[in-house]
Amino acid sequence: MxxxxxxxxxxxEKLGEGGMGEVFKAQDTKLDRFVALKFLPADLTSSxxxxxxxxxxxxxxxxxxxxxxxxxxxxxxxxxxxxIVMEFVDGKTLKDKRDSLxxxxxxxxxxxxxxxxxxxxxxxxxxxxIKPENIMVRKDGISQIMDFGLAKLHSSSEGSRLTxxxxxxxxxxxxxxxxxxxxDVDHRSDxxxxxxVLYEMFAGESPFRGMHETAIxxxxxxxxxxxxxxxxxxxxxxxxxxxxxxxxxxxDERCQSAKELAKDLRKIKKSTGHxxxxxxxxxxxxxxxxxxxxxxxxxxxxxxxxxxxxxxNKVISSVYFLWPLIGILLLAVIYLLVVKGPSKQNSIxxxxxxxxxPDIIFSGGIVPQANFEISHDGKTIVFIGADSxxxxxxxxxxxxxxxxxxxxGTDNAFxxxxxxxxxxxxxxxxxxxxxxxxxxxxxxEISQAKNxxxxxxxxxxxxxxxxxGVGGLYLVSSKGGAAKEIIKADPSHPNxxxxxxxxxxxxxxFLYSIEKDYIGATPGDVVKIGSIDSRIDKVIxxxxxxxxxxxxxxxxxxxxxxxxxxxxxxxxxxxxxxNFIARNINYDIxxxxxxxxxxxxxxxxxxxxxxxxxxxVLMNSKGGQTELPVFPNKMTMGGFSFVxxxxxxxxxxxxxxxQEGQSENTEVWEYDFKxxxxxKITFGGELxxxxxxxxxxxxxxxxxxxDIYIKNADGSGNMQLVYKCDSAYYKKxxxxxxxxxxxxxxxxxxxxxxxxxxxxxxxxxIDRSFTAETPEFNLVNGKFSKDxxxxxxxxxxxxxAQLYVKSLNKNSAIWQIPTNGGIKGWWINNDxxxxxxxxxxxxxxxxxxxxxxxxxxxxxRFLFSLQSQKLSQLVDVSKDGTLLLCTRSLGxxxxxxxxxxxxxxxxxxxxxx
Length: 913
Known about the structure:
Blueprint: E1 5-6, E2 9-18, E3 21-28, E4 33-39, H1 48-62, E5 72-78, E6 81-87, E7 91-93, H2 94-97, H3 103-122, E8 125-126, E9 135-138, E10 143-145, E11 152-153, H4 177-180, H5 187-203, H6 213-222, H7 237-246, H8 258-272, E12 301-305, E13 308-312, H9 322-340, E14 350-354, E15 361-362, E16 372-374, E17 380-386, E18 392-398, E19 404-407, E20 414-418, E21 424-429, E22 431-437, E23 443-449, E24 455-457, E25 462-465, E26 473-477, E27 484-487, E28 497-503, E29 509-515, E30 526-531, E31 537-541, E32 548-550, E33 553-558, E34 561-568, E35 573-582, E36 587-588, E37 593-594, E38 596-598, E39 603-607, E40 614-620, E41 625-627, E42 634-637, E43 640-643, E44 646-647, E45 653-659, E46 666-672, E47 677-680, E48 688-693, E49 699-704, E50 707-712, E51 720-723, E52 731-736, E53 742-748, E54 754-760, E55 765-771, E56 779-784, E57 790-795, E58 802-807, E59 814-816, E60 822-828, E61 833-838, E62 842-851, E63 854-857, E64 861-865, E65 873-877, E66 883-889, E67 898-902, H10 904-911
Antiparallel strand pairs: 1-2, 2-3, 3-4, 4-6, 5-6, 7-9, 8-11, 9-10, 12-13, 14-67, 15-17, 16-17, 17-18, 18-19, 20-21, 21-22, 22-23, 24-25, 25-26, 26-27, 28-29, 29-30, 30-31, 32-33, 33-34, 34-35, 36-37, 38-39, 39-67, 40-41, 40-66, 42-43, 44-45, 45-46, 46-47, 48-49, 49-50, 50-51, 52-53, 53-54, ...
């Protein structure tokens, strides 16, 4: 269009483009002035109603006359394309200028933008797309808000809502929670967006850091923004508070007026010139992000002696001050050393992050969490490193080095722990307890351990360890030999597990955890004191956690927060208050183990939780996809990681399980496709999984703890026990019969095989069960046919996963679906077809013809591969086959780095002041 004349506007150059159109610089040949023309996308004004609505809103915006708002001169149409004629602003966008702005300049821009918004809000106009690209900073220093032509008229003289219902405008990362959820927006939505802009300007990064649009959406709606002070030192606390108030999730909790926001920012700006200089100490980690931080060097001259600091900042302006000053400093140091004496702490607390080696992630393999330990001298960490193929081995890294090295011959290792002299490392592999000598690199077997749950090594070269997921603790020499059980599990609780022992300084007594039930965290879990001679067995803490001791304190977790409490070794009693170190600690709920490790020499390592990298995607029969801002929990069964979720019969909702905030347990939630809202259904307080809708959509079935329950689908009423499970082994709900009378349960047997069990909902009893011909094989992912004549399931009895159909009548006829690798299938179209997924991610459909007790299966027809659609799993399929619920990986979401605290005692001393 460059060089063309549109009406009486000569197009001179293109200024930019985006989702809301293209912008050109033009000359108004009538009035002889420069203007900016914005041509709108055709879909924005696709109908006459859309045009009328837009023109009405733009007219209201054009009526504004404010120095901080870019003026709209006209709205025109040319060859069926609407365009806006705006004031041409000679300057740069805030996005282009933000790296060169001072604190005062940012404050001034914020004040002007807030004042411009206040003028718009007074006229009932909401901008809806405040972002750095829409804020222009002119050469004379005046800031102007652009693109008010796309604003929303919130009220009018007619009292009608002019913006089309359900329309969502805005830019990801700057939209308010209500915008993202498709809810009603008002002027407070702009205040939220401006809060994001100000946060970015001062912190240098966004408050919502998701690596994918859906991840950002989730954070905006659910995750509180961390204070700016946690990512940048020296921020004015009042300014931090003002910006965080703009970012409140609930509109009513947010700053209520752009005019008041401008006033508050102006006060901060006035105070910056008179503010006294501040010296910032190392954070004690009690921030919303749960991570401690330390100040960067500011160029100040400091002398530190025994944790005391003398700071001189730009005081020396002449060499004549140098020698007298050095003399004063030396006298001060002598005074600290001789007169005052050394303090209790002889080092400075620092907090740093440790990244994993290139192309390696922390943890992985059989046990995905909590796979690192710091040495007793606090100088080295051992961790599990996994490569892109999933292979994992032990790695070590000296904390004064930037490099880590693998320990060869330690494939499939998990739960490593150090020898007392830090010269060897004990670890588990499937079936064994091992050790590796760091000098020779030689790995040797110490003892049999079916499925290890932690060990610890004392100064007498004895190891206390848990050899299995259920049962007691054993003692063995580090040289090997017969292992002796020293503490037995409670015989009245056959599924009790003693795990994660940790020696106290005497090398005789130790902490250990009790997981009361195989299912994971329960209210009965405790931490105890035991001894190698079994003379003491005392509960010291009620919590589902591992625990460690160092320097007079016990470290443990609750609700994913890392805590500490004073511990008296003379009577093994906790004393004083529980104190906080960090929140959002990586936590394995099934093993009740958190990711932290503390050394007696004063160093601490912990790891924050990594974001779930799976999100739901709805695919229709034509291949169209809709991504949902829902992050389901992954589960593992039969060596296969999967997401369990269920589409409602009316296809308006999905059931899934997720954790709420810092809760250690999962609950059942529903997501409503129409209202785009999430609702919590269960409140059981235990590990809850595999929810499934009743055929009428009025009830849900799910597993909570070890048992099977049903509940009203609207969340009302109490959970009703349907089936009480005697074994500790994992169960999941696979299906609910079309008549509502029977549930199909998948049950892992003690011999590690699985069976399918049909439960009568009314009688709360087993009707019948089905097992593989050979018990160690698996029957999984069962589905009833609608007419209840057939059972579809997958089994690995042939050596690879394969789908079969079995008659539910008295005869035992079985039909095999010929495609290899079938792991999960669904009956669709009134039992006329079966759609299924293979382990490789291919999706097929096969026709079904039935007569009496006979079944004829057609040839499988390939539909698509999940990989080609950028999907990871097929989770559920509607009964008519028109809607597929899938998951998508958000890409290589980075596993959280390790946080290394040098001199954790400094944090404790600071916290105890």
